[in-house]
Amino acid sequence: MLTRALLAGTLAATAFYFLERRVNRWTGSKDAATKLVMALSGIYTAEIGPGLWQMAQTLRAAGLDTLVLEHTSEEALVRLQQMPEAATFLEQFEAFLQQFGYRCPNDAELLNPRWIDAPEQVITLLEGYLHADERVNPEVSQQHQRAVREETTAQVEARLNPFRRAIFRWLLKNTQKGVRARDNYRSYVTKFLYPMRKLFAKLGRRWMERGWLDRQDDIFFLTVSDIDEIIATDDPLALKKDLHTVVADRRAAFDFWRHVIPADAIGPDGTPVVIQQADKSYLQGVAASGGRARGTARLVRSVGEARRLTAGDILVTSATDPGWTPVFPLVSGLVLEIGGQLSHGAIIAREYGVPAVINVSGAMQSIRDGQVIVVDGTHGRVYLDEVL
């Protein structure tokens, strides 16, 4: 499955390269290629936003939105499960978990519980949708993006002779197929990993009950060889391993290194190289999703911090994965330090019509939280303004 995912990504990137090159040469348009691959049907992750939006509307219609907003997500979920008037919402909620429950933010890390394991996470995500109005309706955004894609396709074809039109249609078909597969294979891999995580979590619970571990999720700080040895002997003490100490040391290392910001480049003397941009009025990146958006920058390092976002804010973060998808319909722009035109963040930004600039080196250091910025997703620039 991992091999297929890597192959799908390679084929998608190759197809997009040739499509972009031909379209730019034949039409002179720099953003036409990205418009041709947005709002594609069948991208699983893009269905998360509409699902959350529909649940939020159901809560509003039942007069239960205040309950969710005034209680913690855990308390709100318990109360909703006890209320007959929440029956329709709970049906939607269960269907959502069955369809997307294997996901979570940073789902490549087995340590993180999935939505179906900790469903209160979904209630937390719903808070942002309950604060939003019809302007952030992801279904409307996707319909608009689809219309733009179809219009752009017709405009490109109208400028081509029959021979070039045939080449264009072949390239477009294969590129759209590749982009869809590139994002969906990421979903397949995540779904494939979920049973593995369940098995490790079960071992963690059993070993905690035996006193070998302090917490159930300590299991995720053991290596596969550690676990194999313990299973073989059924006694970590026989291996002269104090799992409590091993786990504590590895947790400390994990907590330290995940907050270290790596340098963009390392010089020959082993020290970080600071790359200065000549014009400091803007940051240059890669154009990923066309359009311009002006708003308040919110520096977010985890999805847990995303509840600070309000409608119209611009999300600035290092990188996103499918677990971030629910946030996209709530923002007016996106700035990522890492990614390419076919990265998950770029694909989903185009699905929801969010102007996006990615691969913006040093964005988290150059942009201040609360600063007003302009995201130019067509030319790949982030213009810096004043702090509110």
Would you mind describing this structure in some detail?
- The protein has 388 residues and is of the alpha/beta class.
- The chain has a domain at 282-387: Phosphohistidine domain (Glucose Oxidase, domain 1).
- Helices cover 50% and strands 10% of the residues.
- The chain is built from 13 helices and eight strands.
- It has helices at 2-27, 32-36, 48-61, 65-70, 73-81, 87-100, 120-131, 138-158, 162-209, 224-233, 243-257, 344-352, 363-366; strands at residues 282-284, 286-289, 292-299, 314-317, 333-336, 356-358, 371-376, 381-387.
- The chain has an eight-stranded mixed sheet.
- The termini are far apart.
- The model has no long low-confidence stretch (mean pLDDT 89).
Please outline what is shown here.
The chain has 388 residues and is α/β, with parallel strands linked by helices. The protein has helices at residues 2-27, 32-36, 48-61, 65-70, 73-81, 87-100, 120-131, 138-158, 162-209, 224-233, 243-257, 344-352, 363-366; strands at 282-284, 286-289, 292-299, 314-317, 333-336, 356-358, 371-376, 381-387. The protein is globular.
Q: CATH architecture of the domain at 282-387, please?
A: 3-Layer(bba) Sandwich
Distance between the termini: 47 Å
**Broad shape:** globular
Low-confidence sequence ranges = none
Find the structural class using helix and strand composition.
Answer: alpha/beta
CATH homologous superfamily (4th level) name of the domain at 282-387: Phosphohistidine domain
Q: Helix coverage percent of residues? A: 40-55%
Reading the helices and strands in chain order gives HHHHHHHHHHHEEEEEHEHEE
Treating each run of at least 4 consecutive H or I residues as one helix, how many helices? 13
Total E-strand runs:
8
- The quaternary structure here is single chain
Strand composition percent: 5-15%
- Which CATH class of the domain at 282-387? Alpha Beta
Mean pLDDT: 89
Radius of gyration: 23 Å
